[in-house]
Amino acid sequence: MTSEDEHAEVDEIEIDSKRVEVLDQYLELLHAGDARSCEELLQQNPDLENYLECLHVLDSLAVPKLDETAYRNLSDSVEGQTPVFPASEDSASGLRQAAFPREFGDYELQGILGRGGMGIVFEARQKNLDRTVALKMIRANHLASEEEIRRFYAEAKATARFSHPHIVGVHDVGQVNGQHYYTMDYVAGETLAQSFLHGEWEAEKATRCLAVVARAVDSLHQQNIVHRDLKPANIMIDGSGEPFITDFGLAKIFDLQGPETQTGAILGTPSYMSPEQAAGKKTEISALSDVYSLGAILYEMLTGRPPFKESNPLDTLVQVLEGEPTLPAKLNPNLSRELELICLKCLEKEPERRYQSAVELAEDLEAYLLGDPIQARPSGMVHECARWARREPALAAHLTGMIAIFSIIQGNYLFSTGLDFYFHCQVLAVIGLWAIVSLVFQRLLNWEPTENFAKFGWSAFDAALLTTLLYLTGSPLGPLLIGYPLLVSASGMFFRVRLVWFMTIVCLTSYAVLIVLLPEEANPPHYPLIFAAVLSVVGFVVAYQVYRVRVLSRHFESQKR
């Protein structure tokens, strides 16, 4: 062997030893759960690409390898919900048989029960005690941030602080080969969200179930814990119909000195989120926020749908903040007035109008079951009018504007002399027609098949009737032309870019028709051009702002997935 060959052999041995050292280092980092250092190590040693198969094997020792698409299929089985456990979808049977059972420390993973926002829940057998538990681990742990790991352990801590017969308890917490986990009671049954697939609940059964949940929630509040994510997907129903609260990933723990957030962030599920939580008012989140969520759950149990559920999170949040749910009795004609009052009292926008504790809600539900008088009472006329205005804001705004215009015109006619009665009647007729058209389009807006048509049709009629009113008024129009920019700005309240552009074009067209009918309004000739340019700019600004909001909404939705 020549000296060159000996040197080459020595160099190869040194290279191999360095590779072994790097692999050992990677394995140690993998076991410690240090994903960032693992990534940096791979970037510093690109030649390790040849050992990817080996690295994948090492990685599988730390994380049970299951197809992410299969996870998503499991969690999407109930539209709009995030089932935690258990799930029994037939589509998962092949995955269960192929991937399970698998060893995981002292546990044997039997199958997937569901997926939460950042965790996977497995059915598992604890080998040393020979019992079945639900084991939750961070989903895709190699990408988990320090904050997610902190929240994960905070969830386990929040759940383990106390025991209650209707709250899923925590048994063990730790990590295996860098994979963080905790185990909790296994509930053989389905989530409340999954039970909705069988139809809405009977009123008495729903009332009895929610009364139990409300008392369990009150026990949380007694321990200075606010759940903040109460929803049907986080309530388990066992074989005998008993409910159990689970998933404390967003729980907010208050210490005795003040309402400082110790765990989680202001997150949640829009359809069941209280207005103060949806508005991001961190300091206002309290036990009354959970009372609102309980009311939203009761609403869905009684009507088959949540109080607010739009096509995307943004529109749902807007409804939570500004809207009013459809009266439950309209969706379920067999519903008693007492249950409707209980439900609406929970869903009040102002926390001070709700039940002041979860136990008050439970007592009212139990009083209803016994046939005793309930605490909830109908609201006064002013409050009912405010509720109606929030329920149908477009119609309320139209009618309010028309009443104001009618009052001004009628007052001017009564206290002025020499006014034309025929002209006065024409103006009032247009206002009356406008009111009737608004009532018709509001009905169409409330009917899902015609909702989109109603938005565009109503916009076109608004512009046409405004133009008719301006034509009857005659020249000079003066400040009355402000009606066109107001219509464009109002169209942005629907958060639809196309609707804003449609209203802008319709208003520009209507103004052009008005100039033809009233040629004196085009003197001097550059005035109409200035007004049209300003109207176009207003339309662009509103449309652009709506577009920005829609982009943020899509980002929020993708993050939730």
Description:
It is a single chain. The chain is an alpha+beta fold and 561 residues long. The protein has 4 domains: 3-62; 68-185, 2-Layer Sandwich (Phosphorylase Kinase, domain 1), CATH 3.30.200.20; 192-383, Orthogonal Bundle (Transferase(Phosphotransferase), domain 1), CATH 1.10.510.10; 392-560, no CATH class. It is built from 21 helices and 11 strands. A hairpin with a 4-residue loop joins strand 9 and strand 10 (243-245). The longest helix is centred in the last third of the chain and has 35 residues, at 526-560.
CATH superfamily of the largest domain: Transferase(Phosphotransferase) domain 1
How many domain regions?
A: 4
Q: What is the overall shape?
A: flat
SS class: alpha+beta
Low-confidence segments: 6-10, 60-98, 255-266
The CA-CA distance between the termini, in Å, is 62 Å
Give the % helix. 55-70%
